[in-house]
Amino acid sequence: MFVAWRDLRFAKGRFALLGAVVALITLLVGFLAGLTVGLGLQSISAVQQLDAQQFVMSPPGSDGKLSFADSAISRDQASKWQAGAGISSVTALGIGQGQAQSGTSKAALAVFGAAPATMANVPANNGQVVLSQTNAAQLGDVGIGAEITFGGARFIVSDIVADQWFSHLPVAWLTLADWQTYAKTIGQTDPYATVLAVYEAGDYDAGNRQAGTASVGGFATYLAIGSFSSEVGSLLMIVSMLVVISAVVIGAFFTVWIMQRSTDIAVLKALGSSTKALLVDALGQALAILVIGVAVGILIISSLGLLIVEFAGSAIPFSLSVWTTVAPGAVLVLTGILGAVFALRSVAKADPLTALGAHR
34: Cβ–Cβ under 8 A, 6 or more apart, which residues? Predict the structure, then answer.
């Protein structure tokens, strides 16, 4: 690394410029990663926090995709599925969207309905609603005991809980009976539930055959939420393109750098330096620039992320975590090294005779 450190000290401006480019790319990738995770959580956090092993829903439509929006489970299907799969802990869950009102204040929300005591936030009695903090604020800072209107009916706020999100709407909770009443008002015929949440292992295939349903679990569950699959897919494609661009930028820089130093490399070879030593020297230099640039980028994105989370709230759904800072930075270092490796092929091909004037 002797030559590498001397080169870094000699050409400070050149390497500072490259480090700044790496830091800016890290900033862009980190911000997009945080936004991607934040937007994803605003689509799936309510379903994610249910922590069910499987969700049972209607079979896929003509496009072959399962969808919470298109699912409807009848009482008969629920009974058949439970019996066919041999599972006792199956909870009917109704999901819908609507608008609540308190005085002159209105708020759009997603509404989840389940039987009392089956899920954490379900109100104990019919005629009650559990609101999210965001909806409570949107409805004029209503508190526990306040009355709101939803779906043409009046409900008493029994609790206000931390925000949970479904398709970018904060979730309010009703009893399953109240949800079924609401579902009738929006045109559903004899509604029972939207999906079934399954909390234990069983013969899922047998249950689906018996009831004519389909079940899904794990990450595939979130793909059944339309807003999640479309938004996250687009943003991940942009992040991937930025990562590729970073590798190209690093590779292009070191290609030019090696072309400028080809004579020096040939001299070092003529003096007895091995190709391996020269490659380690050049890769060490690339790694130093990448680590410093990425570290500066992570520091900036962490600072900005804290400000966004603190002051923007749900207006800018940003997630600050190791997965949106350190993980993208590690990927950028890896791809940058790959770009540098591609550029360093000419080090191995450098001819010592060039230093002795054989080209003249």
Answer: 301, 305, 308, 318, 319, 320, 324, 325
Neighbouring-strand partners of residue 96: 111
Question: Which residues are CB-neighbours of 4 under 8 A, at least 6 positions away?
Answer: 281, 282, 284, 285, 288
pLDDT at 299 exceeding the cut of 70:
yes
How many separate domains does the chain show? 2
Amino acid 208 reads N
**In terms of domains, do 57 and 201 share one?**
yes
Q: What is the pLDDT of residues 184-221, one digit of tens each?
A: 998 888 889 999 999 888 888 989 999 999 999 998 89
* Model pLDDT, residue 354: 59
Position 128 in a domain = yes
- Region 296-300: mean pLDDT is 93
Does residue 223 lie in a domain region? no
> CA-to-CA distance for 218 and 69, rounded, in angstroms?
18
> What domain range includes position 306?
2-43+228-355
Compute the Cα dihedral for 263, 269, 272, 275 and give only its sign: positive
> Is the same domain home to 194 and 284?
no
Sort 195 into a burial class: Cβ within 10 Å, 0-12 / 13-18 / 19+.
buried
Average pLDDT of span 321-330: 90
Dump the DSSP string for 212-229: T-EEE-THHHHHTSHHHH
Instruction: Note whether 72 and 95 are same-domain residues.
Output: yes
The number of angstroms, rounded, from the C-alpha of 35 to the middle of its chain's C-alpha atoms is 8
Contact 165, 50 (CB under 8 A): no
**Is residue 111 predicted with pLDDT exceeding 60?**
yes
Residue 14 sits in the same domain as residue 86: no
Mean pLDDT, residues 244-256 taken together = 78
Which residue, among 254, 251, 248, has the nearest Cα to 14 in the 3D structure? 254
Same-domain pairing of 62 and 117: yes
User: Do both 317 and 278 map to the same domain?
Assistant: yes
Name the pLDDT band for 4 (thresholds 50, 70, 90). Answer: low
